[in-house]
Amino acid sequence: MEVVMIEKDKLVPLAENLRKMTDEDMLLLERSISDLGVVEPLHVVEYEGGKYYLIVNGNHRFQLLTKKFEMEKLPCIIIGRDLPMERVYVEAVRLNSISGEFDMVALIEKVGKIVKKWSEEGWNNQKILMALGLRKSSPIAKQLLGIGKKPKKSEKDSLPSKIGNLLDKNIIHPITFFGNICVIKDEECVSLIREIMISAEVDEEVDAIEKLRQILRKGLEENE
Q1: Alpha helices by DSSP H, 64-207
Q2: Where does CATH 3.90.1530.10 sit in the chain?
């Protein structure tokens, strides 16, 4: 389809934009436009022979291009003429949802090297995310930067070690086993067990449950 330049005064945003963007998203979009220009034209529907054009896809770009970059004419693609509003909203969904998915293995392999290089050059996470156009909360950002990962614990500070210390101090008492079920009458220990059960979902603590069983059985044997 042909890209045409349309005066901003003839462009009308949808009354209810179906896609929401955070302030962080808008900042990333602004950075992209500043660095690369308008890569994707607005998608519009023409009405009354060109009297006005309804923006179906690109409402946030319209805001930035007219207010921040002060453009008088914007690049647009006309996807239809005099369409009913029902059809307009259907097209808005289609245009905003059609996208592929990243191959995470390839992404980590290729882009991960670039991110590592930037980190070694002193770039902080915020600068890296801005350069990649990623939100801090995005799964890709977490994969590339390790955002949200729990630091690995030393053996001394691990939860199994803490429970072992409680056993050594005779704080855990008494421990009674019923098959695979044990009853522990101590609030501090119960709290730690709850923590260890949760941490078992984390990679570096996958053996936490088995360690817990071993420690508790050891404590039971020593108390018999």
Answers
A1: 85-97, 104-120, 125-132, 139-145, 159-168, 187-199
A2: 3-97
Highest mean pLDDT out of 27-31, 73-77, 169-173: 73-77
The helix or strand, by DSSP H or E, that contains position 62, with its residue range, turns out to be: helix 59-63
At 62 the pLDDT is 95
Both tokens assigned to 155: 């053996």
pLDDT digit string, tens, across residues 123-172? 988 899 888 888 888 888 888 887 544 445 554 555 556 656 655 555 54
What b/e readout covers 48-81, taking b as 16+ CB neighbours within 10 angstroms?
A: eeeeebbbbbbbbbbebbbeeeebeebbbbbbee
CATH number belonging to domain 3-97: 3.90.1530.10
**Phi, psi dihedral angles at 93 (to 5 degrees):** -65, -45
